[in-house]
């Protein structure tokens, strides 16, 4: 070949040379011709003579570039000090395809290499990178050059460096890893919790994976301008300030849980993603699905008081909602250009990936799952892997477990065997792990399991679950690891469903059956015949027959089935929620309330005033005892505190007089007398601010407070409150501030737009703002990014009329060149169609049910 082709984007290459040793201890240096091809973000270096096989060449490239203005590549960030001074810093974010914006490289995950980094800076700045600094040279009166140790072998997207005036706090793990948290000096006091979490979680992962963390240090940095939540650069993880900093005065229990989970996620990547990297972006779920799932495993082990597994249910609920539409995609999907690759960082890769792994872990047992992933990590350390490599590792470990359990069992011809704690079941079933898991990763969607139970005989069928229509495509078939309990069972029943229909024969007659025990499986269940009637009756008589996870699962499935072409009537789903007056589980209670709240907001936005008012009265009447029980404090367990936040926010939103009065009292005290922020409990701060923002004086006070607050958690609560105003001029001003990027940072613009769109007074305003400013938004956020998805899907998700559907279609057609590349546009249109169908089917049913059940 006469060409070396690298990735390069927005770099001005001035000279390039190639060196080859000539065998005489000298090097032949030749200048190269440079050809750039911007559409493919590539540059070719052409030689006059062909490059020879088995020869070593050294390529030297001189280039210059400006710091990027966005959130990718080597970009500039700013923050303001308390006295209003603007400080600059420079940071990197290379995932997925932006290392090429900082240096020419083979910018693909399978091209792993070691990197030696040197950075020149002024004395007032600190430079950090993936590896520790090994020396600093003084080059002038105020110029220094920091040299960093050579990195381990890794992909380009994990390279990182930051130059700032940040300060840090540090600690050391039991194995000697130095952990440091860097932040704006005025926010350093908010870094202590993240440091504690990082040390605990790193120690846990070393023990759980059986592999030492391979670097001598781990830095965590709160970057003031950051598009995503965080980034797992090896040894130098970067975060939004709200994902790393914890302020006890303004951060709620929910904020604390978020910081804990995000730190756990990024540190899990040090093994899943960094040590072992997916071969190509089609398998990004091997990084993100694992990291999302390890959040729950690690935090449950290190911070059991956070009761983190309760929130795994919400993760799977979100995945199912996204997966139950035609515009969904397989976990492992084709991704070829940068836009397609960016769109892979979505609910499917993260949440569905985590939920499928959770199902697999319960199917294989914890021992096999853990040993399998440890085998996978050790075998592919510093290499790349694909999904099949993971299945093979799990299968190999499973086979070993079988041998240990029953050495007399012939396994010579068994390639893939799964282990269950019930030995008789385990020894009687041989499974091909890859064949099972391919049905979950290479086809989109999720199964609906249809159950018809008659005494000791259970007939089961499966089909694809799609919201709104009955599927007619028979090609969808999953290998479903079913679990079930019955009226007479002492243990959980298990059955691997491999066909479209099957029969389970029980040992004795039973009066009821419930599938998907504790929602450890990724499927929805419909009970035909008297199945749902039996369940509703049981919940009313003794809801504790089911675990709280099973109760939340039943509520979820019932309301999903209402959307599934009316498989279950809305009235029956609502009947199921009647038992909630006896519910003691915060998880199940919030799930039931959440379903009612969604319906209420749909009626409110469609301006169906009689139903809006009736639903408001019903919710406040029916849940008054539990609402009145809430204290305006930060007391109780994390679960109790999060219930308090949600209930009081809902009560005030529904204009429940005692709630509004108390929130107004707290807000006025804060606004008029200058009371300390600590006088308002952090768990109710968002609710108090939302009530306060309803007046012009309150809105202006909060905007002024936003400008001086040094807490990202508080600022997020403030802009959410500002977005709840009924004053359209105020909402317009808020959107303008978001676009300007001075007071409200550009990173928060998508969230501001979404917050305004959830306000009935701001829904059309937000949509018109997006249409008017579409090109400006694309200048700020790249196509395919999570920000653009949030803007497109978020501003349209509450539309529910044919007129709105047509208007959205027209806009998408007008912006066809960009929109046609995005899966987000398909999601948006399907959401609107789904809402239209729901209203057509259910408004009359809802009106009748409310009239019969409202006292």
TrEMBL record:
Tagged with keyword Hydrolase: yes
Family named by the database record: Belongs to the peptidase M1 family.
Pfam families tied to this protein: ERAP1_C (PF11838), Peptidase_M1 (PF01433), Peptidase_M1_N (PF17900)
Cofactor: Zn(2+)
Gene Ontology molecular functions: metalloaminopeptidase activity; peptide binding; zinc ion binding
InterPro entries associated with the record: Aminopeptidase_N-like_N, Aminopeptidase_N-like_N_sf, ERAP1-like_C_dom, M1_APN-typ, Peptidase_M1, Peptidase_M1_aminopeptidases, Peptidase_M1_dom, Peptidase_M4/M1_CTD_sf
Gene: Erap2
Localization of this protein: Endomembrane system
Highest taxon of source: Eukaryota
SUPFAM superfamilies found in the cross-reference section: Leukotriene A4 hydrolase N-terminal domain (SSF63737), Metalloproteases ('zincins'), catalytic domain (SSF55486)
Domain Peptidase M1 membrane alanine aminopeptidase span(s) in chain numbering: 193-399
Active site: 266
Residues annotated as domain ERAP1-like C-terminal: 512-833
Upper classification of the organism: Eukaryota, Metazoa, Chordata, Craniata, Vertebrata
GO CC term, one of those recorded: extracellular space
Transition state stabilizer (site feature) positions: 350
Residues binding Zn(2+): 265, 269, 288
Keyword list, A-Z: Aminopeptidase, Coiled coil, Glycoprotein, Hydrolase, Membrane, Metal-binding, Metalloprotease, Protease, Signal-anchor, Transmembrane, Transmembrane helix, Zinc
UniProt main location, coarse: membrane
Membrane topology: Single-pass type II membrane protein
Protein's name in the database: Aminopeptidase
Gene3D superfamilies according to UniProt: 1.25.50.20, 2.60.40.1910, Neutral Protease Domain 2 (1.10.390.10), tricorn interacting facor f3 domain (2.60.40.1730)
Cofactor note: Binds 1 zinc ion per subunit.
């Amino acid at each position: 070949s006469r060409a070396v082709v690298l990735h390069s984007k927005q770099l001005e290459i001035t000279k390039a040379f190639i060196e080859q040793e000539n065998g005489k201890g000298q090097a032949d240096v030749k200048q190269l011709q440079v050809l750039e091809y911007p559409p493919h973000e590539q540059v070719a270096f052409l030689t006059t003579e062909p490059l020879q096989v088995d020869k070593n060449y050294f390529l030297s490239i001189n280039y210059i570039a400006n710091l990027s203005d966005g959130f990718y590549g080597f970009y500039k960030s700013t923050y303001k000090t308390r006295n209003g001074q603007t400080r600059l810093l420079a940071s990197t974010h290379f995932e997925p395809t932006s290392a090429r914006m900082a240096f020419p490289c083979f910018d693909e995950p399978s091209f792993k290499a070691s990197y030696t980094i040197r950075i020149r800076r002024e004395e007032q700045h600190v430079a950090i990178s993936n590896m520790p600094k090994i020396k600093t040279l003084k080059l002038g009166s105020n110029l220094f050059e920091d040299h960093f140790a050579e990195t381990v072998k890794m992909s380009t997207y994990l390279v990182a460096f930051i130059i700032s005036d940040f300060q840090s706090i540090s600690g050391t793990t039991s194995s000697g890893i130095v952990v440091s948290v860097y932040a704006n000096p005025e926010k350093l006091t908010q870094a202590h919790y993240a440091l504690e979490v990082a040390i605990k979680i790193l120690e846990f992962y070393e023990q759980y994976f059986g592999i030492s963390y391979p670097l001598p240090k781990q830095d965590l940095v709160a970057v003031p301008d950051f598009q995503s939540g965080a980034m797992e650069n090896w040894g130098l993880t970067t975060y939004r300030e709200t994902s790393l900093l914890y302020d006890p005065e303004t951060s709620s229990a929910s904020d604390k849980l978020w910081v804990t989970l995000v730190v756990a996620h990024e540190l899990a990547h040090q093994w899943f993603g960094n040590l072992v990297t997916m071969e190509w972006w089609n398998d990004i779920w091997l990084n993100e699905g694992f990291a999302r799932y390890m959040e729950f495993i690690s935090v449950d082990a290190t911070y059991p008081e956070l009761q983190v597994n309760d929130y795994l249910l919400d993760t799977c609920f979100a995945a199912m909602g996204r997966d139950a539409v035609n515009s969904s995609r397989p976990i492992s999907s084709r991704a070829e250009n940068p836009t397609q690759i960016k769109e892979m960082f979505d609910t499917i890769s993260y949440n569905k990936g985590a939920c499928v792994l959770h199902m697999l872990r319960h199917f294989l047992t914890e021992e096999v799952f853990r040993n399998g992933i440890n085998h996978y990590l050790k075998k592919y350390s510093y290499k790349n892997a694909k999904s099949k490599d993971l299945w093979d590792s799990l299968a190999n470990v499973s086979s070993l477990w079988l041998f240990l359990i029953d050495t007399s069992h012939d396994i010579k011809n068994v390639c893939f065997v799964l282990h269950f704690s019930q030995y008789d079941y385990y020894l009687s079933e041989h499974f091909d792990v890859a064949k099972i898991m391919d049905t979950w990763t290479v086809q989109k969607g999720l199964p609906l399991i249809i159950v018809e139970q008659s005494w000791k005989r259970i007939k089961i069928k499966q089909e694809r679950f799609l919201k709104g229509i009955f599927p007619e495509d028979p090609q969808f078939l999953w290998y479903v690891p079913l679990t079930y309990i019955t009226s007479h069972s002492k243990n959980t029943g298990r059955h691997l469903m491999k066909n479209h229909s099957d029969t389970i024969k029980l040992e004795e007659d039973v009066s009821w059956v419930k599938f998907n025990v504790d929602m450890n499986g990724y499927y929805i269940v419909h009970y035909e015949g008297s199945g749902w009637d039996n369940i509703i009756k049981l919940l009313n008589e003794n809801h504790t027959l089911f675990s709280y996870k099973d109760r939340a699962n039943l509520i979820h499935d019932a309301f999903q089935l209402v959307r599934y072409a009316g498989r279950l009537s809305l009235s029956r789903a609502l009947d199921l929620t009647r038992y909630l007056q006896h519910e003691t589980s915060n998880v199940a209670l919030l799930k039931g309330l959440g379903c009612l709240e969604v319906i209420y907001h749909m009626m409110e936005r469609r301006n169906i005033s009689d139903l809006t008012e009736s639903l408001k009265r019903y919710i406040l009447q029916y849940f008054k005892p539990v609402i009145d029980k809430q204290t305006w404090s930060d007391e109780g367990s994390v679960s109790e505190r999060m219930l308090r936040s949600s209930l009081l926010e809902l009560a005030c939103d529904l204009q429940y007089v005692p709630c509004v009065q108390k929130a107004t009292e707290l807000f006025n005290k804060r606004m008029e007398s200058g009371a300390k922020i600590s006088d308002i409990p952090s768990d109710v701060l968002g609710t108090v601010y939302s009530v306060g923002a309803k007046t012009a004086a309150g809105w202006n006070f909060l905007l002024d407070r936003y400008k001086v607050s040094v807490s990202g958690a508080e600022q997020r609560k403030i802009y959410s409150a500002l977005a709840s105003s009924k004053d359209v001029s105020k909402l317009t001003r808020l959107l303008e501030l978001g676009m300007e990027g001075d007071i409200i940072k550009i990173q928060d613009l998508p969230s501001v737009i979404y917050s305004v769109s959830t306000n009935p007074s701001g829904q059309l305003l937000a949509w018109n703002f997006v249409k008017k400013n579409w090109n400006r938004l694309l200048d700020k956020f790249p196509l395919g990014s999570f920000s653009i998805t949030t803007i497109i899907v978020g501003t349209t998700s509450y539309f529910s009329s044919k007129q709105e559907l047509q208007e959205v279609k027209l806009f998408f057609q007008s912006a066809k060149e960009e929109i046609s590349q995005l899966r987000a546009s398909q999601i948006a249109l399907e959401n609107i169609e789904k809402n239209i169908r729901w209203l057509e089917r259910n408004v009359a049913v809802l009106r009748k049910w409310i009239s019969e059940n409202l006292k």
